[in-house]
Amino acid sequence: MENAIYVVFSATPTGMGSLIRKATRNRYNHVSISLGRDIHKMYTFARLYKTIPLYGGFVVESILRYRSFAGAARVKICRIEVPEARFNYLCSYLARLWDEREEYIYNTPAALASLLHLRPDISKAYTCVTFVQEILARYRLAGVRETDSPTIRALERRLAACVVYEGPSPVRMGDWGEDSYPQETTTRYAVYVTARHFGRLAKRALLGVS
User: Fold this and answer.
1) What's the rounded mean pLDDT across residues 159-166?
2) Total-model pTM
3) Strands, E assignment, the chain
């Protein structure tokens, strides 16, 4: 395995993604991290299921998310070399997050506040941007700092010199792996997990507990 990570900006093929791009007037609305150049498997914070847009957390995305009836989504891929010791620590950290993924949730208030360049701090809650920033800052990569503006546009500018590809998402065959995105859900389940999600966010914001 090479000692490099790939930061993947994407224009996700969803209604929510389209709304975010219109609101921000930016080409991309989402960002993830991959440990392989084929970007078949990516780590980020996003919705867990296609049918439940407001319920999200830590996910291992399959590149299959980036395809729809309209074709492949547009992506921009940045390659960042990582010293071997830091790369090994980063891999271990991502593995630990995955093992503890039930504790980590999507920071919906921060996603809305990012339009004003604000960053509401909620325990164990991230957006895709704040997660990638935290990873890059934690391992001192590409000059990224956790205090940087929490927006896709700001992160793109920071990584401008690292771009290795921009265009349609690479076509890959295969299964969804650990990604639960395509699973069917019931309306009852969607209402329950969405309400629980916002309840957890409110509890953490008000009391600072999980």
Assistant:
1) 97
2) 0.91
3) 4-10, 30-34, 41-49, 52-62, 67-68, 71-72, 74-81, 105-106, 125-126, 163-168
